[in-house]
Specification:
173 residues; mainly alpha; 7 helices; 2 strands
């Protein structure tokens, strides 16, 4: 393993190509700039080691592609969560959606702290696995398994509530 060349040199040499890669994937110049800045900042701040198995450009390309895809996925999740309710939506559908939302929030409260944090950060806030791992100081594999277990328990709890096995908090029994 060898250290990266000075970050300013790496940035100067590869910024234009990095932006082109990110723009092609994201189709948004501002978002591409954000991803490129994030990648170079991460490389600098985390003292990332280059293993020397491929050229710097190949290695950097892979990091940029993965980061751009993660950003695109996070944006899609945020857009789904923030999409406005259409005026033509049936009031019954709105009521059912509100009930599901309440069940979801109630279900979150029944998860362990780690599972609740991981589900919230991934599914509600749109963070990537590496970002969550960094924030919670956990291995990425632990984040993935905690997310899977949290989602499974959340869905089971919500299914139990739908079947009438559990009453939502604050509901008359």
């Amino acid at each position: 393993m060898s250290a990266l060349p000075p970050m300013t040199e790496l940035y100067r040499q590869h910024r234009r190509r990095a932006l082109a890669i990110a723009r092609r994937i994201l189709r948004d110049a501002d978002e591409a700039e954000d991803v490129v800045q994030e990648v170079f900042t991460r490389l600098y701040s985390q003292n990332v080691r280059f293993d020397g198995k491929a050229a710097y450009t190949t290695w950097l390309h892979r990091i940029l592609v993965n980061s751009s895809i993660n950003s695109l996925r996070a944006k899609k999740r945020r857009d789904r969560l923030e999409s406005p309710v259409s005026a033509t939506v049936d009031p019954e559908e709105v009521a059912v959606g509100n009930e599901r939302h309440e069940m979801f929030l109630e279900g979150l409260e029944h998860l362990s702290e780690q599972h609740r944090l991981v589900v919230t950060l991934r599914d509600l806030r749109g963070y990537s696995y590496p970002e969550i791992a960094r924030m919670l100081r956990l291995p990425e594999g632990t984040v993935k398994s905690a997310l899977n277990r949290g989602r499974t328990r959340l869905m089971a709890h919500m299914a139990s509530m739908r079947e009438g096995e559990l009453e939502p908090e604050g509901s008359p029994a």
